[in-house]
Amino acid sequence: MSFKSIDRLIRRNSKTKLSRNIVDGIYDQKEEQYVQSLRELLLANNQLPEKFDDYHVLLRFLKMRGFNIVKAKEMFLNMLKWREECAVDAIAKIEEYDAVKRCYPHGFHGVDRFGRPLYIERIGLVDLNKLMQVSSTDRYVKYHISEQEKTLSLRYPACSLVAKKHIGSTTAIFDVKGLGMNNFSKSGRDLFIEIQKIDSNYYPETLNQLYIINAGAGFRALWKVLKACMEARTLAKIQVLGTNYLSTILEAVDPSNLPDFLGGTCTCSATGGCLLQDKGPWTDQEISQASKGVFGKGQKSFDEISTTVACENFPGHQEPSVGKLHPISGWKRTLGMLLKDNQVGDTNENIQQNKVNEQISEKIQELENCSAQTQETLHALLQKQNELANHIEQLRKLLREAANADNKANVLILK
Q: Does the record's keyword annotation contain Ribosomal protein (predicted)?
């Protein structure tokens, strides 16, 4: 490696040290070593864009490839190539969004008990003919990609703020009532396979658990065909349930976040139905703005917000709390310094401000320590460089002396 590469590693590794935080919790030491090894390998070849220079992003690829660093690197680079070829960052929201939602009932609806986004599809009610009339397979695939991007850049960060811990996966429920081999056409199977391939290859390890409910004999026959094209790790996260699914679902999801048509208590009647909106903490303007300001910027850590953001739990995210929260405003609280709230009048805010000041002082000290460590490392490298230069000069001197001795010997022989 060149000194320029070493310098780049030092500078970016200093950011890694700052990523330890109370929100992420305790790192697994072995996983951390794998992540650091993969990261250094990518950095050494200038193959790690800062946007993806993130502990959890790299960990997802490692997990998907069984912590085989070479295979994880290959998968990661394939993802970067695919994003460039498909111009993923330029994909916009489709114009036929509302029409698609009505032909294909699906959407995010709150969070599970852990705080993860809850995604629901009523596949048994999909009108594929109408869907292809208002859109196309290619356009729907692009729509799916845009939704995945929104989940990574907005939904997960917002949920992480509210849950006060890292959220990086989704809990999903697929209602397949009435779906079977007879009414699941080839175009439908092709669409499913294409989406599954995209999710597995380019958005690995973003599924926490998938519950397939109301699975009858027809669907179970279809399932034997569909699961043949799925990764083993993904299949392990899928649970196929019949009509007696509710007790299992309620272990993972609070009734307030489960639509009434699935046995929950939510109707979303004021907004036209549970799956026609995008319900979740990410739709709150304050939380959304806060998450945009902190997440999705490489190794940015929760440290920057852990002392300035105090979000209550979204309904259904069970954690000890004081009193019962309003079903809408329960997950909204002041975002403190991140939103530059000027109302610092009352005692609680002053206490909070003091805590923020303490944390800022600690952060300054941590940065100074990192700077000192960097200087020591650079000094050691320069010292090593000087030592190597001296060794080289000594070896050259030995060669010159040996050459001179040979010349003298040859002169004596000639005499």
A: no
